Amino acid sequence: MSAALNILGQPVQPAANQIPAHIASLPDYEQQARHHIEASAWQHIQGGADQQLTLAHNRAAFDALRLVPRPLADLSGAHTRQMLLGQPLEHPILLAPVAYQTLAHPEGELASVRAATALQAGMLVSTLSSHTLEAIAQEAQHARHALQRRGPLWFQLYSQAERSHTLELVQRAESAGYEAIVWTVDASIKRSGFALPPGVAAANLRHVPSRQQAGSIDGPPLFGTPLAQQAPTWDELRWLRAHTRLPFILKGVLHPQQARQAVDCGVDALIVSNHGGRVLDGVVSPIEALPAIAAAVQVPLLLDSGVRWGTDVVKALALGASAVLVGRPQLHALACAGWLGVAHMLHLLRGELELAMAQLGCATLEEIGPDVLWRNT
Ligand code: FNR
């Protein structure tokens, strides 16, 4: 059998068992990861919708914001801790739900949850994880015991065609010890041309009929198909909220009016996200949409899509987020150096955050306000 090739046309390199010496930032991990991931999986991971306008804009919108340093602050006792949904967070950086992590490394989510625990970062486990949600929760328990550390463990829910299957996922997550349910509503209808390689599958859904993809060549494009009929609705939100005792978070909101409506339905927090630019092209970036949402609702807001630097974290917090999530960087780091890579990636981002806070004269997260941004001073 011929060796799998990476995007550079070379044989895929296995993950290193130590942190590569030259890596000093998340973009460094992205560069290095090209060597470690098979070409079609790389395109799937990196890709954005259509012209990839949103993908590029997610970065440009962060880059357009300018910071104003404030030296001379007293930084003794400075920290990055906070309480979020009644759970202690050591720092405001979480691992976004990312499907099929064994595409990047044989240990997949088991490695990621070990890294998250070591760095006391929250991890959101995808419905489409390549290990079962129970196995990932068990790995988290082992790591918590071994390291005497912990971070929040939340379950990301995708609705299934039958409500009974959706509810079963919620109940399995509750039984396995997950501490919040995160319902993603922005990606139920999207194109995907990526065929999973042998051995990679949605481990949680082995007994569940798979959902149809949008736009098959020999049928109606979307309207009139089961996919359109089964898309998430407000009614389903109210039903789900009533069926879990856990904090309930909505992921994929960009409109302030929808944010308000979601809170009226009992949602405890929102993740302002455009799914990393993967679903609808030309969409506003979360960092642009955030101020209007922060003005519209009182619940905690998290943000993802394009976060790559500690200064991005500061910018998100300045505009009203409580925390941020990183998506693709966890796969990059996983592919380069397994769980050590993911732990290092989180460590780098947290270090950059603290550096930025120090320069901006912020000793705590609460001190990061709109006045750290030039246009708002
Ligand atoms: C995702 N994302 C995602 N979101 C979700 O709610 N459930 C999922 O299963 C997945 N799966 C997934 C796979 C891959 C390969 C990517 C790149 C992304 C979206 C993810 O949670 C997050 O919103 C974005 O990745 C954030 O953007 P960045 O950090 O990748 O720019």
From TrEMBL:
<feature type="domain" description="FMN hydroxy acid dehydrogenase">
    <location>
        <begin position="18"/>
        <end position="377"/>
    </location>
</feature>
<keyword id="KW-0288">FMN</keyword>
<comment type="similarity">
    <text>Belongs to the FMN-dependent alpha-hydroxy acid dehydrogenase family.</text>
</comment>
<dbReference type="InterPro" id="IPR012133">
    <property type="entry name" value="Alpha-hydoxy_acid_DH_FMN"/>
</dbReference>
<protein>
    <submittedName>
        <fullName>Alpha-hydroxy acid oxidase</fullName>
        <ecNumber>1.-.-.-</ecNumber>
    </submittedName>
</protein>
<dbReference type="InterPro" id="IPR000262">
    <property type="entry name" value="FMN-dep_DH"/>
</dbReference>
<dbReference type="GO" id="GO:0016491">
    <property type="term" value="F:oxidoreductase activity"/>
</dbReference>
<dbReference type="InterPro" id="IPR037396">
    <property type="entry name" value="FMN_HAD"/>
</dbReference>
<dbReference type="InterPro" id="IPR013785">
    <property type="entry name" value="Aldolase_TIM"/>
</dbReference>
<keyword id="KW-0285">Flavoprotein</keyword>
<keyword id="KW-0560">Oxidoreductase</keyword>
<dbReference type="Pfam" id="PF01070">
    <property type="entry name" value="FMN_dh"/>
</dbReference>
